[in-house]
Each structure stands twice: as structure tokens, then as C-alpha cells.
Amino acid sequence: MFSAIFKNRRFDDPEAEREFVCRNHRRKTDSRVFFMYLAPIAYAAHIFLDFFVAGEQATQFMLLRLCVVCPGMVAIAYLFHQHHRKFGTENLICAYLLLPTLNVLYMCVMAEGIAADIYPFGVMIILYCCSAFILPSYRFMVRYSMLFIGLFWLFFPFSAVSHEAAIAHAFFQIMGTGVNVIGIYFLELTERKQHANEINLEEMISDLEASERNIRELYHEAKKADRAKGEFLAVVSHELRTPMNAIIGFSEIISAEMLGKVEPDQYREYAEHIHNSGHQLLNIINDILDLSRAEMNKIEFVKQDFDIASALRAALASCRANADEADVTVIQVEPFLHDVCINGDEARIIQALVNIIGNAIKFSEPGGSVEISTPYSAETGIELMVTDFGIGIAPEDVEQIQKPFHQAESAFVRNNGGLGLGLAICALIAEAHGGKLIIESTLGVGSSISISLPKDVVISHEANDANDAGCAQESHPPRHDKSYA
Ligand code: ADP
Known about the structure:
By secondary structure, the protein is an alpha+beta fold. The protein folds into 2 domains: 1-299, no CATH class; 304-484, Histidine kinase-like ATPase, C-terminal domain (Heat Shock Protein 90), CATH 3.30.565.10. Helix content is 67%, strand content 9%. It contains 17 helices and 9 strands. The chain has helices at residues 2-6, 9-12, 14-45, 47-53, 58-87, 89-110, 114-118, 121-134, 138-155, 163-255, 265-295, 308-326, 346-362, 395-398, 409-414, 422-432, 468-474; strands at residues 304-307, 329-332, 341-344, 369-373, 376-377, 381-388, 436-442, 446-453, 458-460. Helix 3 runs antiparallel to helix 5, helix 12 (308-326) packs parallel to helix 13 (346-362) and helix 13 (346-362) packs antiparallel against helix 16 (422-432). The site of adenosine-5'-diphosphate (ADP) has 22 residues, from helix 13, helix 16 and strand 8.
């Protein structure tokens, strides 16, 4: 029954069992050694008992105690302390306990009268002390108790112990041994459970450490690969820009017939196509270069004070041709701040605006309109907001499209081209100014995309003080509950 309760797969493995025994021994060594040096003193103190009850044999018993048993116990304690590996822990404990036990049994046989009835209690005292201080394994406890009790009953017929005293001893031995064995058993059970938990914990910790190391390595590899990719893209796009400029420049000269008439006329049209495509390609190359520079923290922002209205005008001017071609009207709506001065990189802000307005035009239906507004609030700052009433973006795509090379599902259906780099760069530009890109959109209804800049970058907006209250009210307009008719 006892071993059934012990059933734990961990202890079926002899290696694990050995490890438990070693660890358990290490934990108890100090207290065991202390007890083993202390017990001979306690045992020697029993010379008073010899002196008062042993009568004629007192001297013999005392000499045996002091000169043989106690030095023997100290010697074994020393061996246990220094050489327990060589002689074996259990062997030494057994020899150590056997010495006083045999001495007690010898005295039982030799003693007469009342002394014979008293000495057998020594066996019980040794057993109790052993279980309380040495804390052996429960198996050892069972074996050792059996041996002691067996020896006692072996010596009993030769002793002068009375029958009444023998019955009393038998009762104490059964009760004492039972209590000891059960106590040690539950103690060991707890120790085994604790050991199993410790091992599980150690395994878990080493697994975690291994996976942490793994993740760290993977992270460094990914970082290296990412850096290599960034450097590659930066070099390639930089190298591509020079020939692209030549292509764009020469195709422009040809299409504009700067050096004379180009015939037949188709050649001029082809040159125009080359020029437009070259521009598109150059924009893509520039975007890739910007992103790879940003990833390597090499992108530079040249900040100075500039007028936001003129930046918006510049952005609108560069989108005009596209708007005309797509038959989309771009209008400025209230609140539109005219004399707001901002501290930032004007060229980058224009770049971001061109991209957002370009997208709004691209994703609007022919005949549609795109609205530009600049709501301002003294608490949150200014927003450069572009609203369209085109295809809109599904909520699950809103976060994705701010990452490089991501496009919304709705845009695929339209097949409007593009690489999915523009908004990632817009977000970068907004963040470099301490702001953020805000996208609010409803699929099939339209989108509001704004560059939100914090109030610290707004240098002045005096001309609009009168407008402030209105701006503050409109700083968070309900963007899609308008009528888009
Ligand atoms: P590109 O337009 O070159 O693909 P962007 O980063 O500018 O790259 O845009 C990423 C995607 O976000 C677009 O492909 C499109 O799916 C979506 N998107 C951006 N602006 C709008 C808009 N105004 N309306 C609908 N979808 C948009």
C-alpha cells in the first residue's frame, strides 16, 4: 500500500531516484551530523541510570558506555561526516544505531531485578531519537525497527525481564514503531512531491531559458536580415535614381520637342509615356529609399517654420492633373486655417499631403469630390484632413495599410496600382513631427485621412483667432454621418 502511494513516474527511473536520495541527503546532512555528535553525550549521561539502578554491574555498564559505545558512536559520526560516500549513508547510520542498541540489549541480559525491566526502554528511546533527528527514509525505518524489535525478543529469553514488563515493552514497541513509520512515511511523501515539483520547475526554467536563447538568436538574425534588406534597398534605389533622372529628363526634352520637331508624331507620344512612367517609377524608388532610410534611422527631417496654407496649395497643385484626369473635384472646406505657421519639414509634409490627396482622388468615383480641411484645437493641435466619398476601407484593413506593402482588399478590386508604401511614409512623417496618421473610413461610403500634428508644432494662428471657437468645435467632426450626395 505504501509503495502504491509512492507511485510517481519520476521515481521509477533509477537515475531520478538516486538524484532524490542524494539531494535529500545533502539537505539533511548538517542536522544529522549535529545529532550524531550530540547523541553520544546524551548516551554517556545515562551513567547516572547505571549508577542508581544497575547495582553491582554499575561499574561494568558505565565503563562499557563511556569507553566502548560512546567513542564508537563518535568514530562512526566522524566517518559519516567525512566519508559517507565511501561507506554508504545507510550503512553508517545503521552501525551507529546498532552500537547503543546492542549495548542496551546486553545490559538487559546482564541486569537483574528492577534494572532488567528498566533497560529495555533504551531501545525505544534510540528508535524515537533516530526518527526525530536522523530522519531516515521510511523503508530504512521499517527495516531498522524490525531489526531492533527482533533483537530484543531474541535476547528476551536470556534476560531477567519480567513477563509483565515484556508485555508493556511489546505494546510500546508496536505503538512507537507504528507512529514513527507512519510519520516518516508522510514526511518522505512530502519530500518526494517537493522534489518532483523542484525538478519540474528546473526543467521548465531550462526550457524557458532555451527558448529565450532561441528567440534572441532568431531576433538577431531577423534584425540582421532586415538591416541587410534595408541596406540593399537603399543602395539599389539610390543607384536607380541616377539613370531614372536621365530617362525622365531626356524623355521630357523629346516630348516637349525642345531640340526640334519630332516626327512622326507617335514618337513624341511615346516619349510622353516614357516621361510619365519614369516619374511613377522614380516616385516608387523614392518611397522605397525613404522607407529603407527610416528603418535604418537615417532619414533626415529639415525643420523650419512654414505656412501650412502654402504647403497645401503646393500639394493641391501637384495633384491637379490627376484630379482633372479622374474627373474629381478637390475643394477646401471649413474649417480651413489660412495663416497657420508650423515648425516642420515642409517638403515632407507636402509629400505626405500629395500622397493622401492622390489616394483620395484615386479611390473616388468620376464626378466625385475630395474635401480638404484643417480643423484646429488649442488642446490637440492641427489636423490636415483629406475627406473623400470613394470606395472606403474595411475596418480590418485600416491598421494594415499603414504598414509598408499593404493594400486594402477594396483597392485590389479597383486595381488602381501602387505598391502600398505611401501611407507608411505618411505615418512616418507624422510621427517625426510628434503627430500621427488618423484613418477613419467606412467601406463604400468614404474615408477621412488626416495628419494630426500636436499643438507644439503650431507656431502661430493669429489670423484665425476669430475662427478658434469654430475650429475647436469642429476638431472632431462626425466624419461619416454627413450626406455624401
Ligand atoms: P498605394 O496607394 O500606393 O497602394 P498607400 O500606402 O498610399 O499605397 O495606400 C495603401 C492602401 O490603402 C491603398 O492601396 C488602398 O488600399 C488604401 N487606401 C489609401 N487611401 C485610401 C482612400 N482614400 N480610400 C480607399 N482606400 C485607400
